[in-house]
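Team,

Forwarding the record for the chain on the shared tracking sheet. I've put the sequence and predicted structure together so nobody has to dig through attachments.
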Amino acid sequence: MKDHYLIMAALGLATLIMAWLPSVSKKIKISFPIILLLIGFLLFWIDIPLQWPDPLWNDLYLMYFSEMIVIISLMGAGLKIGTIFSFSAWKRPLLLLLITMPLSMLSAYFIGVYFLALSIPSAILLAAILAPTDPVLAAEVQLNEPTREKEPEDKRRFTLTTEAGLNDGMAYPFTYLAVMVGQAGGWATLNFSEWFWDKLLLKIVIGVVLGIVIGRSIGFIMDRLHTKTGLKTFDGFVSLSLTIMAYGVTELLHGYGFLAVFFVGITLRYYETISGNHKKKMHDFIHEIERLLLVIWIILFGGSLMNGILMLTDWKGIAFALSFVLIIRPLAGLIGLMGVKDPIRTKLAISFLGIRGIGSVFYLAWAFTQYNGFEHKNELYSITAYVILISIVVHGLTAPSIINYFVQKPGKDKPKE
């Protein structure tokens, strides 16, 4: 019983501290995930009796917990974007999705095969799980709150927000590809047409369409309830309920729930007959739930680091993690944005701030629950942990200063187009 109260006190204190961390991080110019990670180290060191990873999580539990945080974050990202639908605004994230993401994946795959000596399915999986930028840990470089402009004032934040929302769903087909190649025994025996038409095209289309349909339908219902019966929807928790419902329905109907949730958020935000105050309330509620779960996730991640997960790979894994965060993503980002007439400093900021995090862990755990024949399981978990740790530290120490630079010198961000 004493352990029970000790856990409650420790988690309560950690989540209470989170209430002030965003403001503190702005003052000291260090992203709050770094501080949360240090709190996790401290709680592990003083032996708070949590169910610490030893050093790995249970795949199924890890998948469920990470899944919940990611879908909540995706809804929040969608609700931030608002009425921005012009090609000029969306060109940057689409280029990152269509050029930068494939380049990053190809680089990770070939390095995985020829440098890390991974099997082909494991190398595909490594490439797939590192494809998405993170909508959770990257909150400080994304849009702060719902916006209504037809053109985003801060193109860096808009680009990073929409990229995270889109590529978190687009990583799913390639994680499926890793599983299918493993099950088939290699490229030669893979049913490529099934993967292409079903896992890549059909499930993406269903996810996007259902997201738009559900968002429009709920917006219509909320509006009609008010205009026809006088009933108003005041509660912000509607956004959480809608997130879970949309994700579950879309997955049951053979679509990608991540994409659906993101497009539900965008579509609801676009539905102008819903009160703007209520949309902000929905966004604020989902954002607070996301931060609450983030505290627990990072604390457990810190315990996993302290408990030895980083020891499950060698110097090659560490070198790969460093190069992926510091070289591969920035270069791929610059290549993807070559056709955009933005100042080079803006392109560098967007390319560098491709933060990795919880989405990668979800995909890794999901793949292991689908196929237990992956080789190098422990090493893949360790490399992923290194990538996330490096991203938290490097981006955590630099992102606030980068964002602040453009805030203080807004003219530096003006595109030439």
